[in-house]
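Note to self: user wants both folds in one dump. Writing first protein now.
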Amino acid sequence: MEILLPEKKCGKRGKKTDILSRCVILNNRKSAGGRKYRDTGICRFNVFSYIQFPVVAADIVNMKHFVQTFLVLGFLLCPLNVFCADADIPPLLAGVWQNSSRMIVFDNRDSPQIILKLFYGWYYDRILDMSADAPARPRNAATSRNSEQVSVSFEPLIPETETSGAWNLHLYYSGFKEEAVIPVAVFGGNLYVDFMLNRSDADGTATLMEAASNISGITVSFPQPAEEVYSFLRTDNAVYRIRYWQTDMEYDGETEAVLSVEEGSFPVPKHLLIGSTVYTCVPGRGTVIRNIERLPESELPVVSSPDNRICVLAPPYVTAAGIPADTVRQVVTDANSRQRPPREPLIPPGDLDFRYDVISELRKYTPNFSEP
């Protein structure tokens, strides 16, 4: 069987070979590219310059180069990212969100907008705006010259309802091969990046508040997952905190660990898959949770969603701004046109009371007195 190559020069003398010919280099002779083979070889060629190349093992002695070429072709032809995520923005997540340091916009684009509130909020920097009609960044931009390149898609963690929802944000940052996964939850007009999901046991004697997030915020830089997360088991008498830490074990969603307390023994998931990170609550193949921490009920100020599916302990990351997404650029323009008021004087002004009688006495008894 032949190696099908396009007509090209091969060999030391540059002799042309037709498409059904092979350039065979015999014992201890080098190819046109200077590569030495033992018995036979092939001339080097561009992998994009052919359509098909049926090959048999007898034609190539050094199979390493054939395998490398095959892997390169597979990498180029196969899709780089395949997962069950949706490009459409969930209704509860769409809109403008803000806190004291940034604004985040989810609109009808495959990339979010992020505006940083820099210099104590006196300058708004459109650090992430990949829109085709985006205005040019000003020369006094406090960050990079060009906008950051980040695309996003959405994977639901729980079904979205009219009052609450939770999703995995799959973010693709320029310069990074792997994707970043940021879990978020929305209810009550607030967006949370630190939240848990309620899981009730079969008999209803306990409720497991399962950790579902591990990222501190939605940023323009690649986020790093937390080293450890906490779940909480709530019974009628107390609350128990369960620590999960990162592990390199393979995720097993069916294996359970046992939490033995005064009220009885309760099964909890041994592994948690949060984003793309696996956490465990027991080492190795163990199933018994040790070093149990009991908390008073008053120390757990839990806020739950109206449908009681999501619970949080931390304040919201951002809140709904209440403005249309198409007015964000005007908001940025108006904010950057503000003038900072002058600084307050170090000594506050007040009513000065001059004692003229003392001044007259100084003139009388001080010969060398001179008024300022």
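First done. Writing the second protein, which came from a different request thread.
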Amino acid sequence: MHSLKAKALYDHVDFLRRLVNGRLAKGPKEEESFSVYARRSLSLNDEKDWNFICTGMDLIDDTSLSLDHFLRFGMEGISRYNEVGEKYLRMYGALNSTYIQQEAVFTICKLCQHPEHSAFRTRLEKLNIRDIRHKLGAHSIDYSDKQKEEVLSFVPVRTDMVGLSLNYINNNDNSTSFADLLLGINEHLDLMSDIIYATLEKIKTTLYKSNPDKIEEIDKGLKELEIKRVDGFVVDHEDGQSVTVSFVMTKI
């Protein structure tokens, strides 16, 4: 993947998937449905929760791929033609990918009963890219400004849609605002990884607190994810050894 942040989130969800699948590897008891087995094995509140967790993991994977492609090729895409229509499709697609991803990540966090899920929700609601999505990708004609207590309308400036940024107009007062989609999406991806990481920590302590060997194994995986969360990466060798690479910013 092109974006280290998108790859980091993708790897967080892959780790989550392997963790819960490993927990369910034995299979249900005789005459026990899989949904009941999943609820019991994962300490979920409802039999349906497992279905939503599966859907959430799939959606996060899918949207990570779409956001990675957008961050790599911008609104123009890989076409050699400067198609305005494609710019709109890619902008709307990227903005709504962030929204789908946010809701999927939060749902997993909540269903896994993380005690800080309400605080995570507050941080999620404050993301700049979420507000841009509401203004340009969902409620362009009926955006509700809670502070001003009025309904506003917004439209992107077609000629300013270049790369990973654009300007958009508030048609109520004709004011123009700048949207840095690169900055907004990267901020979003960082928070998504933070929430999944915290959820993994919660699963570890809930399901494996009496299994120190498994906790040690999970901690090793979490340590690698920490490196990826700061735009580093881990290289695995055939002999089982691994090398971690991270970048340090210094002033010249």
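Dump finished. Worth passing along: Strands lie at 143-145, 150-152, 154-156, 165-170, 175-180, 233-236, 242-245.
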